[in-house]
Amino acid sequence: MDTPHDRTTAHQATVNQATVEIDSPERMTELGRRLAKLLRPGDLVMLTGELGAGKTTLTRGLGEGLGVRGAVTSPTFVIARVHPSLVDGPPLVHVDAYRLGGGLDEMEDLDLDVSLPDSVVVVEWGDGKVEELTDDRLHVLIHRVVGDTDDDRRTVVLNGIGARWAGEDLRLS
I want to staple 145 with a disulfide (CB 3.0 to 4.6 A). Which of 24, 137, 151, 166 is the partner? Predict the structure, then answer.
């Protein structure tokens, strides 16, 4: 069955894709640390996955890899957190759009368009809400076994969209 997360339109064509199998929260954090080495100021990373899929765990790894200040935790109730760099790199802006109902109009209050050029912006639950911020983005889909299970296995699909991601090796090997 086709889901909104699986469709791309002509102006959002995926130009680069890789799939990574993850078997533990520690490996998800490590994936974030490895992915952080590819990120630079102006990058938008959209994270999509079920509750408990590992979006915040991946973002924690991104924060560690970017060398930012503060513990990276879910910003669900504050909507967004800014983590300044401790190593002269870009700050990490971590957004949880789960509670935001509208599209970009509702996101404008967060001034992400102002933060984006100088920061790495990671948006959980951003589908249909932040795509218009930039033509270039990394869309990370995290698939997990659903239901009452302790299964830590995840399939992570990295979709590089736009010219920015055309030459990147997303296999992270």
Answer: 151
Centroid of chain to Cα 109? 20
Radius of gyration of the chain from Cα atoms? 15
Beta bridge partners of 142: 49, 156
32 membership: H or E segment, kind and range: helix 25-36
Q: Judge whether 77 and 91 are in contact, CB under 8 Å.
A: no
CB atoms within 10 A of CB 28: 24
pLDDT in tens, 16-38: 999 999 999 999 999 999 999 99
Helix (H) or strand (E) holding 83: strand 80-83
Closest CA to 76 of 56, 92, 57: 56
